[in-house]
Amino acid sequence: MKLLALDTSTDACSAAVYADGAVHERFELAPRRHARLILPMAHELLQACGLALSDLDALAFAAGPGSFTGVRIATAVVQGLAMGARLPVIAVSTLAAVGQAASDMACRPAVAVALDARMGEVYFALYRRGDQGWMRLEGEERVCAPDAVPAPAAGEWFGAGTGWRAYGAALSKRLSPAVVAVDAEIYPRARHVARLAVHGFEHGRLLAPAQAVPNYVRDSVVRAAPLRHRDTP
Asked: Is 224 exposed, middle or buried (0-12, 13-18, 19+ CB in 10 A)?
């Protein structure tokens, strides 16, 4: 199978093409430049892989939580591309992508993911690797103060994500001694969004383009004005 995955949910901006088991990616730390970068990244990748949108089986994107503007950019771009090419969409949790990155890159089977949510809060979730290598959510994704995150089950856990850089002391105090190591520089990346999307595709988690919406987690943002295609860069 072949799919294109996009992520603009944090300061990182990336696109990836999954083609028959191989993953090709463009990645850049580019705060506030996602709207200018993401479409050229996607077009360059497709061209380098010798693919057109019509050759793909699906599109995927990191649906959040994360930067409100960033999540909206990826959502709008994927909606527009999917509608034009008549492709299904797979929405992937940004937190799951960080958890999968920690599993794939650092060989960590249990990950406490924390992303900086600003306003003194973190987006937080616990993920554990299953038998097939995919990260599975334990409990629920939430946004809360660092000293209010849920304690993980017994065992050794790995802390990953930008929330550990912003609120490392509070998180460590709350989660000690369960969390034995931390990497605050693990960002969500389109290559991990793509891997999770393949798993979602195989299990039929396909959306129509209009059903591809952001997952803000914050209730106050969910009730905000609806996404419009004029947000597409």
From this structure: exposed
